[in-house]
Amino acid sequence: MSSTNRRSFLKAASLASLASAVSPYWFAPSSMAAAFRSPNERPILGCIGTGDRWNGVGPAAMNFADCAAVCDVDVAHVEKGKAKALELQSKPGAERTVDMYEDYRKILDRPDIDVVTIVTPDHWHSKIAIEAMKAGKDVYCEKPLTLTIEEGKQIRKVLEETGRVFQVGTQQRSEMDLRFLHAVALIREGRIGELKTVTVAIGGAPSSGPIDVADVPSGLNWDMWLGQAPATEYRFRKTDSKYGNSRCHYEFRWWYEYSGGKMTDWGAHHVDIAAWAFNLENTGPVKVEPVMAVHPVAFENGVPTDPTQYNTATSFHVTATFANDAVLHIRDRADELGFENGLMLEGTEGRIFVNRGKLTGAAVDSMKDTPLKEETLKQLYKGKQPGNHMKNFFECIVDRTQPISDVHSHHRAMTVCHLANISIRLNRTLQWDPEKEQIVGDPDAALWQAREQRKGYEIQV
């Protein structure tokens, strides 16, 4: 079947077979792919970025799609990605060749590829996602989707223009035994009264001390790995950890040039749930205030002055206040409330605590006698059965709707995280217009809503 005919089939296919293949609230891998079993019905997948996190994302996508190509700027990563894809597709009737590329544009240029996963460092997400949508691909992109507020606006614009299906990898909306979904549902049903305050604890970034310049590893295209970020030396120091200390691979998270530290790492998960719980997914705060922050290096006008070591915040406390006087506290840890990671949701008639391991509170206990309404869960999950994030993405590819972790809500949640980082880097309170999506009364701070793009790697919208 041609790519065009396959896409037409997917658009017209009924969801009934998919719904009947799964249980209402949890989906085993063996049943998740039931509606995509026939080779003619399965989309063709291209995987952009095949490092550590791809080992979870890529195989999950291959429950529903056949991988035709993998891409990474590190030869070691792309070879492992190809080997894994071939292993998963080695069963009789599922054999498929898998091509390897260094340049992601080779995948986007292929008309046979319908869907892409993007599992690259954060600073590459937006450019690849925008070009993928323009190339007619549906997109599953790991969080955080953006490095700046402006990038979120750009992705939203291109999504609206192209009509692609786009899922962000904030799996807490779907999985973790539905603890987060249930917490939000309890709030929607008024079980703790009106939600007034949410405190999220997301951990702080590590510090590294000075890291020496080192030779670029064989097989790594360092210039392309840097992409839009400023050209700089490769740095690496071997440690007892799996990744060592470096400016590359997993350790990119601790450099503002490529990420936002814990503020956008775990913040992308917990701040997203907080916005969902507040029912403020289509707006934003009016004020963001830095209560405290500790960075491992000195800053000058928001810019780290030491290029030799990690520079994202090791500890912090930021408050975001909304127009309805709801307050969100973003902290590295909340010892006085008794937790290091998770969300404390406080209403006028009680409170709930939730993280990936537990959901507690009197309102939670009340579910034994008064279960949540099925319609509440279904409405929160956009009319579909909750339970598996990747399944939700491919289900939406069929009916051309937006998944549970859509670009619009994620952009709004990430805007809070980006504003929090701007406030602690500049060490001042920001006033925000959520309708215009603009920092007001502070032109210097407003410049931080975007970033300078290195020549040759600019985003074209």
Plain-language structure description:
The two termini are 32 Å apart. By secondary structure, the chain is α/β, with parallel strands linked by helices. The protein has helices at residues 3-12, 16-20, 29-32, 54-61, 75-88, 105-108, 122-134, 149-162, 179-188, 222-226, 262-265, 267-278, 362-365, 374-380, 389-399, 407-426, 443-446; strands at residues 44-48, 66-71, 99-101, 115-118, 138-141, 166-168, 195-201, 236-237, 245-246, 287-294, 299-300, 303-304, 315-321, 327-331, 342-347, 350-354, 359-360, 430-433, 438-440. The chain folds into 2 domains: 3-174 and 384-406, NAD(P)-binding Rossmann-like Domain (Rossmann fold, 3-Layer(aba) Sandwich); 176-372 and 409-449, Dihydrodipicolinate Reductase, domain 2, CATH 3.30.360.10.
Give the SSE map:
Elements: H1 3-12, H2 16-20, H3 29-32, E1 44-48, H4 54-61, E2 66-71, H5 75-88, E3 99-101, H6 105-108, E4 115-118, H7 122-134, E5 138-141, H8 149-162, E6 166-168, H9 179-188, E7 195-201, H10 222-226, E8 236-237, E9 245-246, H11 262-265, H12 267-278, E10 287-294, E11 299-300, E12 303-304, E13 315-321, E14 327-331, E15 342-347, E16 350-354, E17 359-360, H13 362-365, H14 374-380, H15 389-399, H16 407-426, E18 430-433, E19 438-440, H17 443-446
Parallel strand pairs: 1-2, 1-4, 2-3, 4-5, 5-6, 7-14
Antiparallel strand pairs: 7-15, 8-9, 10-13, 10-18, 11-12, 13-14, 15-16, 16-17, 18-19
Helix pairs in contact: 4-5, 7-8, 8-16, 12-16
